[in-house]
Amino acid sequence: MSAPTIDPEHGIFVNRTINLRSIKAIGYDMDYTLVHYNVDDWETAAFTHAKGRLLEMGFPVEQIEFDPSAVIRGLAIDLQEGNLVKATRFGYVIRAAHGTSFLEYDQMRRTYAGTMVDLAEDRFEFINTLFSLSEASLYAQLVDLMDEGRIETGIGYHGLYRAVVASLDGAHQDGTLKRAIIAEPERFVEPDPLGVLALLDQFEAGKRLMLITNSEWEYTVRIMEHAFDPHLPSGMSWRDLFEAIIVSADKPSFFTSDKPLYKVVDEDAALLRPHIGEIEPGSVFFGGCAAQVETFLGLSGDEILYVGDHLFGDVHFSKALLRWRTALILRELESEVEGLRSFLPDGLKLESLMAEKSSLEAELSAVRLALQRDRIGYAPPPPGVPADKKKLDSLRSQLAAIDEEITPLAVSASRLRNEAWGPLMRSGIDKSLFARQVEKYADCYTSRVANFVNVSPFALLRASRVDLPHDTWIG
Question: Residue 185, class by beta-carbon neighbours within 10 Å (0-12 exposed, 13-18 middle, 19+ buried)?
Answer without folding.
Answer: middle
